[in-house]
Amino acid sequence: MDEPLKHLMQELGNAINDSLSESDRIAEAIGEIKRAGYDVFLVLEATIGFNRRDEMDEGDDESEVMEATDEPKRFEATGKIKLTSQDHRFLRALKIAVDEDK
Questions:
Q1: Between 20 and 30 A from 52 (CA), which of 9, 20, 41, 90?
Q2: When comparing pLDDT for 13 and 53, which is higher?
């Protein structure tokens, strides 16, 4: 990864951190939790993807067009995971059904 891109990514991370730390709404919510007698820790994960654009692509829209010869990508689960009761509640809240082998 080249240095200018590393610098831009660091600036993006700093901007995200600054916006969270300067948010009155977040500070108020954390304050309410602390007043209720809890310690608070906040961990956020962001996935940011990027692709270098070619000069020819500048006028195109950002959607990718699949050529007739391209095959659609297929994904297959090969492993198993264990879900906690909290995981199940969360998935049910999102209306996601989970089939488990019993």
A1: 20
A2: 13
How far apart are the C-alpha atoms of 90 and 94, rounded to whole Å?
6
| Domain range enclosing 44 | 1-52
Query: Averaged over 35-39, what is the pLDDT?
Result: 95
The token pair that represents 67 in the structure block = 């050529």
* Phi and psi torsions of 99, nearest 5°: -90, 125
pLDDT tens figures, 82-95: 888 888 888 888 88
Nearest CA to 12 among 62, 51, 46? 46
Residue 89 maps to a domain: no
pLDDT over threshold 90, residue 102: no
Q: Could you give the number of structural domains in the chain?
A: 1
Note the pLDDT tens digit of each residue in 19-30: 988 899 999 999
Please give the Cα distance from 26 to 22 (Å, whole number). 8
